[in-house]
């Protein structure tokens, strides 16, 4: 295939639109140089669509005779790459003792470049195999290992935001930034390295104060200023656990709230992504909304560490953009599909307490949050998150009849093109599917996973 060639994807396509999914049993997408050049929501054939768009040279990926559909790649808005080996290991801990018992010892071991190479190669490979085409990663405090994570994302073809974790107080001596000056120097080094890769469409730096308790006011103010001057993304944690919230209040008594603590230090911008946000008050939500920040909802983590229940409907009603995060390894699964399923279930728990059916999230909504919602939270929705002309082609081919598939399909559920059969298959996929059903993954039009 020459660089100027177009590839036409023809078959069933499912596409997130505002808070819903379009189910298109017979559609066509044209991709050239990684970008979507046409999208026919109803198509007769690949060649008919190509002719309509005056395209003579093209390759075809024809899924129309299979049990497959195309879906946009998942966006993981919150994942700790170095914690991947601990997936599933959290016992009965809650946030603060989980950090000291399991997390800091493991993260500190990534100082060794060999361990970093092994862990980061595997987490990127595994998340890609699960259909994650974009991830917002926390690395560790270590500069060289963090650079390695960026290199690995680039070489395996995953789009990523990569952040060096900054923490200069209230963490063990064996694992922290030695001083404010050291933290600034390390942050600059990582940001400049990622910028020197010169692939702003693929790998972006993201300023990453771990969370307010582990950062001095001095470093947070510097990071806010540095991020704003250089137009960088910012990610951190907020309001995940009640003990954590009380601690922030104690450490920053002059700030009105947890959200205000970040605001006072210049860290709430429209490129800020705040993870968890379970207990934000209405006043804090007003501030987050006013500052145009995005949120990351991490339902598996919040259930595993018994942190609390995120009130998704309240956030949707406020039009604060949010997506889903695996939060590996507070969350045990590297899969956004599993995270979406659990997000749906957590919303049912919220509804059981509120006795309000409106609090339940639908299949369409959680799959929208898993893709376009994440892109909106990261302010990358003009480029990724759904299939639209001008956006990058980040996609996964879902097939419910692969080898060893956990899903059974019955004769009467096919063909996909009839009635609402496609919609039913998507519902079965959400609840019963896993990475075995993700048969091919493309990022920027390049095939990065084939099974
Ligand atoms: Zn986290």
UniProtKB/TrEMBL annotation:
<keyword id="KW-0862">Zinc</keyword>
<comment type="subunit">
    <text>Homodimer.</text>
</comment>
<keyword id="KW-0479">Metal-binding</keyword>
<comment type="function">
    <text>Catalyzes the hydrolytic deamination of guanine, producing xanthine and ammonia.</text>
</comment>
<dbReference type="GO" id="GO:0008892">
    <property type="term" value="F:guanine deaminase activity"/>
</dbReference>
<comment type="similarity">
    <text>Belongs to the metallo-dependent hydrolases superfamily. ATZ/TRZ family.</text>
</comment>
<dbReference type="InterPro" id="IPR011059">
    <property type="entry name" value="Metal-dep_hydrolase_composite"/>
</dbReference>
<dbReference type="InterPro" id="IPR051607">
    <property type="entry name" value="Metallo-dep_hydrolases"/>
</dbReference>
<keyword id="KW-0597">Phosphoprotein</keyword>
<feature type="domain" description="Amidohydrolase-related">
    <location>
        <begin position="69"/>
        <end position="447"/>
    </location>
</feature>
<dbReference type="GO" id="GO:0046098">
    <property type="term" value="P:guanine metabolic process"/>
</dbReference>
<dbReference type="InterPro" id="IPR006680">
    <property type="entry name" value="Amidohydro-rel"/>
</dbReference>
<dbReference type="GO" id="GO:0005829">
    <property type="term" value="C:cytosol"/>
</dbReference>
<keyword id="KW-0378">Hydrolase</keyword>
<dbReference type="GO" id="GO:0006147">
    <property type="term" value="P:guanine catabolic process"/>
</dbReference>
<dbReference type="InterPro" id="IPR014311">
    <property type="entry name" value="Guanine_deaminase"/>
</dbReference>
<dbReference type="GO" id="GO:0008270">
    <property type="term" value="F:zinc ion binding"/>
</dbReference>
<protein>
    <recommendedName>
        <fullName>Guanine deaminase</fullName>
        <ecNumber>3.5.4.3</ecNumber>
    </recommendedName>
</protein>
<dbReference type="InterPro" id="IPR032466">
    <property type="entry name" value="Metal_Hydrolase"/>
</dbReference>
<comment type="pathway">
    <text>Purine metabolism; guanine degradation; xanthine from guanine: step 1/1.</text>
</comment>
<dbReference type="Pfam" id="PF01979">
    <property type="entry name" value="Amidohydro_1"/>
</dbReference>
């Amino acid at each position: 295939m020459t660089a100027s060639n177009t590839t036409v994807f023809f078959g069933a396509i499912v596409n997130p639109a505002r808070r819903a999914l379009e189910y298109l049993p017979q559609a066509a997408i044209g991709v050239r140089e990684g970008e979507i050049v046409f999208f026919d929501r109803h198509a007769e054939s690949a060649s008919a669509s190509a002719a309509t768009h005056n395209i003579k040279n093209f390759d075809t990926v024809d899924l129309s005779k299979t049990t497959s559909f195309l879906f946009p790649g998942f966006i993981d808005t919150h994942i700790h790459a170095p914690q991947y080996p601990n997936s599933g290991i959290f016992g009965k801990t809650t946030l603060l003792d989980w950090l000291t018992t399991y997390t800091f010892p493991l993260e500190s071991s990534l100082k060794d470049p060999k361990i970093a190479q092994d862990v980061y190669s595997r987490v990127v490979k595994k998340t890609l195999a699960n259909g994650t085409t974009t991830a917002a990663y926390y690395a560790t405090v270590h500069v060289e290992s963090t650079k390695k994570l960026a290199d690995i994302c680039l070489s395996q073809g995953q789009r990523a935001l990569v952040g060096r974790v900054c923490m200069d107080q209230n963490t063990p001596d064996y694992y922290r930034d030695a001083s404010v000056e050291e933290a600034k120097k390390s942050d600059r080094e990582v940001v400049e390295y990622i910028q020197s890769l010169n692939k702003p469409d693929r790998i972006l730096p993201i300023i990453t104060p771990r969370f307010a308790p582990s950062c001095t006011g001095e470093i947070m103010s510097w990071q806010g200023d540095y991020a704003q001057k250089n137009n960088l993304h910012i990610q951190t944690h907020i309001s995940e656990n009640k003990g954590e919230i009380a601690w922030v209040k104690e450490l920053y008594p002059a700030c009105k709230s947890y959200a205000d603590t970040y605001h006072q230090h210049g860290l709430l911008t429209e490129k800020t992504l705040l993870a968890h946000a379970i207990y934000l008050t209405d006043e804090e939500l007003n501030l987050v909304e006013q500052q145009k920040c995005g949120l990351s909802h991490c339902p598996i983590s919040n259930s595993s560490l018994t942190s609390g229940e995120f009130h998704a409907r309240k956030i949707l009603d406020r039009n604060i953009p949010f997506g889903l995060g695996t939060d590996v390894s507070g969350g045990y699964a590297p899969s956004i599909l599993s995270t979406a399923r659990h997000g749906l279930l957590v919303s049912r728990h919220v509804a059981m307490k509120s006795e309000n059916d409106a609090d339940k999230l639908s299949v369409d909504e959680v799959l929208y949050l898993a893709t376009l919602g994440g892109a909106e939270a990261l302010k990358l929705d003009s480029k990724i998150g759904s299939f639209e002309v001008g956006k990058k082609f980040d996609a996964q081919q879902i097939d419910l009849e692969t080898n060893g598939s956990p899903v059974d399909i019955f004769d009467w559920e096919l063909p996909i093109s009839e009635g609402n059969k496609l919609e039913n298959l998507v519902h079965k996929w959400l609840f019963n599917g896993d990475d075995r059903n993700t048969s091919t993954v493309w990022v920027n039009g390049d095939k990065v996973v084939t099974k």
